Amino acid sequence: MRRTPVTVPYGYEPPAEQNKGTLIFYDAFEDITVQGLLKAEKTAEERAFSRLVLYPLHEETAKRMLKAAVSAYYKRERQLESWKEEHRSSAVIEGFEAKRKKYTPMDTALRHLTEKYPAPHFLYLTPDMANLFASYASFKDWIVRLRLILSERPERVHPLLEEYQNRWDVSGEPRAGE
C-alpha cells in the first residue's frame, strides 16, 4: 500500500470533534409519548451528543423498580423501532435487557452502558425515575461519574437530588453559565 504525503499549512490543527458523549434515555417506555422521544432526540442534537441510546427496561426490572406491571419487552421495543423508522432517528436501542431476560439492577445496566458507549455520559430521565434513582444506595457513586438531564422539572425533589443539584438540569431550560 502506497502512502501519499499530505501537506498542511504551518500551525494547522485538526478541527475539534463537535459531537461528544452519550445521552442515555433510561426508562420502561410504557408511558413515553412520541413527543417525549422527540424531545429527548432534540436535547441530544442541541447539546451535540454523538449518540442517543434508548434503554428500555425488561418487564421484570420494571416490576421491581416501578412497582407496576408493564407490557412485554418486545412490544415496547417494536414501538421504539417503529418510531425510529418513522422519524428517521439515529437513536440506538440498547438490547442488553432483552439478552438477559430477567431483572437487571440499575448498577449493572449503567456499568454496561458506560463501558460500551463513549464518555461523557448523561442520563435522560423522567422526574419519577430520577427520584427513584436518587433513592438507591449507589446514587452517590454514580452521580459523580455521570450527569442527569430531566425531561421536565420535578414537582417533588428527592433530598439527594437536591444535594447534587449542580449535577443535573432540565431539558429545554437554560443551563448554568448560559
From TrEMBL:
<protein>
    <submittedName>
        <fullName>Uncharacterized protein</fullName>
    </submittedName>
</protein>
